[in-house]
Amino acid sequence: MEVIPAIDLRDGSCVRLVQGELGTETIYSDEPVEMARRWERMGASRLHVVDLDGAFTGSPQNLDVIKDMLEAVKIPLQVGGGIRTMETVREVLEIGVDRVILGTAAILSPELVGQCCREYGERIVVGIDGKNGLVAIEGWEATVEMTIEKLAMTIRELGIKRVIFTDTRRDGTLRGPNMEATKGLAEASGLKVIASGGVSSLDDLRALRLLKEYGVEGVIMGKALYSGAISLSDALKVMEG
């Protein structure tokens, strides 16, 4: 099972937010390119990059930094945050990003999701962000009257094969992932699921590894790695074991 370090970009720095809320950020590095190199050196096989400025403004704001990261590392990047038009999808993929993550667009523009899947296949991933069982959008500032399972079924019909599931109440809190919701989403949808948010211990990772049989194929880690609660090397050993 893949362990994917997260690099969240805000004003060109590498930060973490608590439950995605502005004003809660901790700056971990003002050199995100070097952070990317660090995770690659430590054994990461992929990086998860979120343009937080893009998520809140509606269009990517840190593409220059992402380009520099692509030049600095050999491992693939999956990128999200403010990607809400076909033109932006093309722009992000054409600079060398491996996977584009659609979030808000999956709710507001399902026709875009279908078009992207037809053109780019599994290079298109949807981020499903849950808040009290409903779907959160626009940088998690709003929810819509749709369950995470309903969204998953809808986007599967549009051609999506893989989703990233985040329980927004857990993200950045080190409270542990929402195992029940993660398993339920994977079972109900039949999609490949990457879990995100709340990992705080190696026991959390061991529990997630048991969900592999249901279609959970990886985990995104942020605060636990940056705070030193878990080392990437230990996380990789657990998930490979």
Task: Report a brief summary of the structure.
The chain is 39% helix and 27% strand. It has 241 residues and is α/β, with parallel strands linked by helices.
Q: Uncertain runs with pLDDT below 50, 5 residues or more?
A: none
Spell out the helices and strands N to C: EEEHEHHEHEHHEEEHEHEHEHH
- Termini Cα gap: 9 Å
When the domains are counted, the total is 1
CATH topology name, in short, is: TIM Barrel
Order of strands across the biggest sheet? 1-4-5-6-7-10-11-12
CATH class: Alpha Beta
Number of helices: 11
CATH architecture: Alpha-Beta Barrel
Strand tally: 12
Q: Helices and strands in order, then pairings?
A:
Elements: E1 2-10, E2 13-16, E3 26-29, H1 32-41, E4 47-51, H2 52-57, H3 63-72, E5 77-80, H4 86-94, E6 99-102, H5 104-108, H6 110-120, E7 124-131, E8 134-137, E9 142-147, H7 148-158, E10 162-167, H8 179-189, E11 192-196, H9 202-209, E12 216-221, H10 223-227, H11 232-240
Parallel strand pairs: 1-4, 1-12, 4-5, 5-6, 6-7, 7-10, 10-11, 11-12
Antiparallel strand pairs: 1-2, 2-3, 7-8, 8-9
Helix pairs in contact: 1-3, 7-8, 9-11
